[in-house]
Amino acid sequence: MFKVTDVMLSEDQIKVKVYELAKQIERDFKGEELLVVGILKGASVFVSDLIRCIDLDVNIDFMSVSSYGNSTKSSGTVKILKDLDVDIEGKNVLIVEDIIDSGLTLSNLVAALKTRNPKSLKLCTLLDKPERRKVDIKVDYIGFVIEDKFIVGYGIDYAEKYRNLPYIGIVGE
Ligand SMILES: O=P(O)(O)OC[C@H]1O[C@H](OP(=O)(O)OP(=O)(O)O)[C@H](O)[C@@H]1O
Ligand code: HPA
Ligand SMILES: [Mg+2]
């Protein structure tokens, strides 16, 4: 039986970091338009908090890709379940993820989106778990680098549960 055994990052720690990331993004895209792309479902909570701290002309869109299903291991393949509604050619695109683990989700996504000729393509993740990386990936904005624990909350699930926790918790037996 899995349950949440510890808090890794509190609601307050997350709030401070989200604000810092938003201000970095604001500085980097000053005077530019920006399309923020949230990757469903995990990034939904993070991206909603993030955009509300970014004081720029921001558009938002979502993509849904899935590699984990109901398991704690990536299947290694990424399925596009919902594509963008808008054409990104000539636009500044910021992909927002909740967590980068193996890196497979994002590297597949970046490869797909690059072929659409955006003006720029940058990556932002709240959490980075570098120990489990299978593919190299350059991330422009990272909230927290975390150790190799299976975590949930703030949008992140285990078997579709716990996404509504306001903090990041560690799942144990
Ligand atoms: O770097 P990776 O090993 O690819 O793992 C990271 C991805 O896995 C999770 O999504 P998941 O596919 O489980 O779907 P979800 O966002 O709907 O929970 C998470 O939200 C990231 O998108
Ligand atoms: O630690 C994790 N927890 C939940 N989903 C995930 N997807 C990649 N890593 C994780
Ligand atoms: Mg996800």
> What do the pLDDT scores average to?
93
Major sheet strand order: 4-3-2-5-6-7
Shape category:
globular
- Bound ions, cofactors and other small molecules, one mention each: 1-O-pyrophosphono-5-O-phosphono-alpha-D-ribofuranose, hypoxanthine, magnesium ion
Distance between the termini: 6 Å
Helix fraction by DSSP (H/I, runs of at least 4)? 10-25%
Question: Helix segment count?
Answer: 3
Radius of gyration: 15 Å
CATH names the topology as Rossmann fold
Structural class: alpha/beta
User: Runs with pLDDT <50, length 5+?
Assistant: none
How does this model look, in words?
The structure is a single chain. This protein has a single domain, classed as Rossmann fold, CATH 3.40.50.2020. The protein is built from 3 helices and 9 strands. It has helices at residues 11-28, 44-51, 104-114, and strands spanning 3-9, 34-40, 58-66, 79-82, 92-100, 120-128, 141-145, 151-152, 168-172. The strands form 2 sheets. Strands 4-3-2-5-6-7 form a 6-stranded mixed sheet, with helices on both faces. Helix 3 (104-114) links the parallel strand 5 and strand 6. The model has no long low-confidence stretch (mean pLDDT 93). The structure holds 1-O-pyrophosphono-5-O-phosphono-alpha-D-ribofuranose, hypoxanthine and magnesium ion. Magnesium ion binds at residues 39, 42, 98. 1-O-pyrophosphono-5-O-phosphono-alpha-D-ribofuranose binds next to strand 2, strand 5 and helix 3. InterPro entries: HGPRT, Hxn_phspho_trans, PRTase-like, PRTase_dom. Its cofactor is Mg(2+).
List the topology elements:
Blueprint: E1 3-9, H1 11-28, E2 34-40, H2 44-51, E3 58-66, E4 79-82, E5 92-100, H3 104-114, E6 120-128, E7 141-145, E8 151-152, E9 168-172
Parallel strand pairs: 2-3, 2-5, 5-6, 6-7
Antiparallel strand pairs: 1-9, 3-4, 8-9
Helix pairs in contact: 1-2
The site of hypoxanthine (HPA) has 8 residues, from strand 8.
